[in-house]
Amino acid sequence: MKVNLSVITLSLGLLILAPGCSTSKMKNNTAIEGREWSLVSVQSKDGSTKLTPAEDQQPTLSILQGRVSGSAGCNRIMGSVVVDGNKLKFDKVATTMMLCPDAMNLEDAVLNVFGLANNYKVTGTTLELKKDSEVLAVYKIK
Predict the structure, then answer these.
(1) Over the stretch 24-55, which tens digit does the pLDDT of each residue have?
(2) Reported pTM
(3) CA atoms of 133 and 13, how far apart (whole Å)
(4) Looking at residue 102, what is its pLDDT?
(5) Any alpha helices (H) in the chain, and if so which ranges?
(6) Signal peptide: which range, if any (predicted)?
(7) d(Cα 3, Cα 44) in Å, to the nearest integer?
(8) Which DSSP string do the residues of 15-80 spell out, in sequence order?
(9) What is the tens place of the pLDDT at every residue in 51-70?
(10) Which of 102, 113, 114, 137 places its Cα 20 to 30 Å from the Cα of 81?
(11) pLDDT per residue over 118-131, tens digit each?
């Protein structure tokens, strides 16, 4: 009986401590993932100006489980993304092929960010997509 009580006590102790050990190794990207982000501003494709969307051309961005989706203003976007801490890399981002003459400059700038961004910063409800220290696009939680 003494041995069984010791085994039970040890087992309970391991059950209590084990979850704490395993979660410390998990990556936590919840700051960027699982939210819908709405574009505030984006650097023009040539980098010379900051563009802001019209209300009827609102680009959005969602990242969840290695996938990116949303809107570039006119066309839907979809692709993959690797998020590791504050680093990210978009890959194989594709769009639908609608033509929206009034939105194409903004859309080209939004799509350009996916090829350049290599990190991000979330502050409160604001997301910055960056290349090194340069802010390429600013989103807010929708």
Answers:
(1) 333 556 799 999 999 999 999 999 999 999 98
(2) 0.78
(3) 46
(4) 84
(5) 2-23, 104-116
(6) none
(7) 71
(8) HHHHHHHHHTTS---TTTTT-EEEEEEEE-TTSSSEE---GGG--EEEEETTEEEEESSSSEEEEE
(9) 999 988 899 999 999 999 99
(10) 102
(11) 999 999 999 999 99
Q: Do 116 and 130 contact (CB within 8 A), yes or no?
A: no
Domain ranges of the chain: 36-141
User: Which of 2.40.170.20, 2.40.128.270, 3.30.360.10, 1.20.120.80 is the CATH number of 36-141?
Assistant: 2.40.128.270
Its sign, for the CA torsion 18, 24, 26, 28, is: positive
More confident residue, 4 or 85: 85
Per-residue tokens: 39: 């574009």
Please name which of 68, 87, 85 lies closest in space to residue 132, comparing C-alpha atoms.
87
Give the pLDDT confidence score for residue 126 in this predicted structure: 98
